Amino acid sequence: MEPILIKSLLTKNSQMEEIILSYPRLKERIEGKDQDLTKVRQIIKEIQADVSLPFAHSMVKFLDTVLPALYDGIDFHFKKETDFPKLVADNHVVLVPNHQSHADYIALNYILFKKYKMPIYVAGGINLNIFAIGTLFRKCGCFFIRRTFANDILYKTILEAYLFYLLWEGKPIEFFFEGGRSRTGKLLSPRYGLYQMLIEAHKALPEDKKRKLLFLPVSILHEFVPEQRALAKELQGGKKKKESITQLFKIFKIFSYQMGTVHLSVGEGVDYEVLEPQDDLKKLTQHLAFDCFRSVGSNMMITPTSLLAMIMLDDPVGAMKWDEIVARAKRILRYCDTFNIPYTESLKDEVLDDNLEH
Predict the structure, then answer these.
(1) Which of 54, 153, 163, 177 is most open to solvent, judged by the fewest CB atoms within 10 Å of its CB?
(2) pTM of the predicted protein model
(3) Beta partners for 263?
């Protein structure tokens, strides 16, 4: 490695450590405890992302080649016209998507980097920090957190301090508010931990670094979830298989499927400072989390796959002519129009027949 690059990396890491250690709660906790400082540095290394822009650009080129073989496309849009780079420049932006598949990490961050050349710092479960995959994710912006740490106050404080560092640096952050993948496709109740930690970290920022903390709800909807067989087994009582390197080789099986379109819809930002009550952090966090939850739910769209599934499962006989399926689909969509229920562009009248058949 070139000496200049080594020096740059050392400077970057020391600046990060300095900001993290300046976080008031952490500073107070470890003051005068040299043994804790060593542990803090180990945990920071365990958590931190290691973003490489050249690597991220290479990953985009790779996915440009691979994704068309798997998906019809990625339908990405904001609910209203938004200048995302300006939004990030003017606010501390936190994306809060729902979670249906491991492909969520790839689809959302791929499209955001491709459109805006901006890495997003994503909170990922430590279970994904496995050989090869862990390094790849870190270089694309993933930072890893333990699945449970309620009783480890030092770890929680360090994670909060790392979020403080990301806010200080103005990095866009992302976490999946359900805390894990939904096995049914239905939204799970939000977890409050990262919401609360971000609020606390934001409050501790010095005035010259503080901007509005804005949460952007993101609705992610897959027409076909790659892990659907495993999720179905788990719903039937099967044990969740631990992520491992052997699962990397199984990924090639998905090339035998065509998984339709991934739909990504970014809702309007939720500013926690305008919510009530301001004097009760627990209630404020719950209010914020459910505001984001409701926004994600209201922007979830009906897809050709879900429409066909509903029509076929609702029929008592289970055998229908194609013309009857299309007619029922049109009646359901007229109902959706009446009650402002969103559905994908692929279900519009002029392309409905072709997309249902596909």
Answers:
(1) 54
(2) 0.87
(3) 75, 221
DSSP state of 302: B
Question: Euclidean distance between the first and final Cα of the chain, in Å?
Answer: 51
User: Tokens representing 166?
Assistant: 């990301």
Compute the distance between CA of residue 28 and CA of residue 157 in angstroms, rounded to an integer.
Answer: 11
Q: Is the dihedral of CA 27, 29, 33, 34 positive or negative?
A: negative
48 exposed, middle or buried (CB, 10 Å; 0-12, 13-18, 19+)? buried
Burial class (CB in 10 A: 0-12, 13-18, 19+), 309: exposed
Provide the pLDDT for residue 240.
67
Is 316 or 307 the better-scoring residue by pLDDT?
Answer: 307
Token pair for 272: 């926690």
The answer to whether residues 183 and 63 touch, using CB atoms and an 8 Å cutoff, is no
**261 vs 289 pLDDT, higher one:** 289
d(CA 344, CA 300): 9
Q: Going by DSSP bridges, is the β-strand pair 121-125/91-97 parallel, antiparallel, or unpaired?
A: unpaired
- 25: nearest Cα among 156, 123, 151, 147: 156
Residue 295 to residue 342: CA distance in whole angstroms: 13
CB 159 within 8 A of CB 153: no
Closest CA to 271 of 213, 205, 191, 199: 213
pLDDT surpasses 60 at 260: yes
Tell me how crowded residue 250 is: count the other CB atoms within 10 A of its CB. 9
What is the pLDDT, as a whole number, of residue 245? 57
Is the bond preceding 277 in cis, omega lying within 30 degrees of 0?
Answer: yes
pLDDT digits (tens, 9 = 90+) for 137-170: 999 999 999 988 878 899 999 999 999 999 999 9
> How many angstroms separate the CA atoms of 98 and 101, rounded?
9
Residues written for the chain: 358
Instruction: Residue 186: count other Cβ atoms within 10 Å of its Cβ.
Output: 10
| Average pLDDT, rounded, for the chain | 86
The dihedral over CA atoms of 82, 160, 106, 186, expressed in degrees to the nearest 10, equals: -80
